[in-house]
Design goal:
Elements (H helix, E strand, L loop, with lengths): L1 H44 L3 H16 L6 H18 L3 H36 L3 H21 L3 H18 L3 H15 L2
Length: about 190
């Protein structure tokens, strides 16, 4: 029996690592993209167009490895691509502006990624009727959504916040089905 338990726990741990690992890698890529975008903007501000291009290209490499379903990552990629284009033409001021825009989009993308991840966990648990666990994940998602709203004027983030607040309210009353629908609504707004 001990051997069976040990094998079962080992298999369970391996399954957990396989399901969590991609999310961690995506977080790491977004974090690295932010670091390189910060460096690109800083060097561009000093008039170092060629160094801006190097860091913007590194930021692009990492941003392209992040999930494509996050519209803020997509916006960051577009801005960083423009930063590289202008940096290659030695237009440091324009390239710096584009790098800063890309940086802001990446910072929002980091929070939106966390919102989407925790919100999907909320939906999964809500579909199983686990209202208290739904509420826990929705609260974490709401924290990140509010942080994203502080640096973005996206109306979709505001609508996601409203839907998450509804999910928390209804989940707190034990209405898992209604809370789950609210969480699904939040997820749809985040992808816009």
């Amino acid at each position: 029996m001990y051997r069976t338990l040990k094998v079962g726990l080992t298999a369970g741990a391996a399954l957990l690592l396989l399901t969590v690992q991609p999310g961690l890698a995506q977080d790491a890529h977004l974090a690295q993209a932010v670091v390189h975008a910060q460096q690109a903007a800083a060097h561009g501000g000093m008039g170092h167009a060629s160094v801006l291009v190097e860091h913007a290209n590194q930021a692009l490499t990492h941003a392209n490895m992040a999930p494509a379903d996050n519209p803020h990552t997509v916006a960051a990629i577009a801005s960083l691509t423009d930063a590289v284009t202008h940096g290659n033409m030695d237009h440091a001021p324009v390239a710096t502006g584009m790098a800063n825009t890309g940086l802001t989009s990446l910072q929002v993308a980091v929070h939106v990624h966390q919102v989407m991840d925790h919100n999907m966990q909320a939906v999964t648990h809500g579909d199983m009727g686990h209202a208290p666990v739904l509420v826990t994940h929705a609260e974490v998602a709401l924290t990140h959504a509010r942080a994203a709203a502080e640096i973005s004027d996206s109306p979709h983030i505001v609508m996601a916040i409203e839907a998450l607040e509804s999910a928390i309210l209804h989940g707190g009353m034990g209405h898992a089905e209604v809370a789950t629908e609210s969480a699904k609504t939040a997820q749809s707004h985040l992808k816009m």
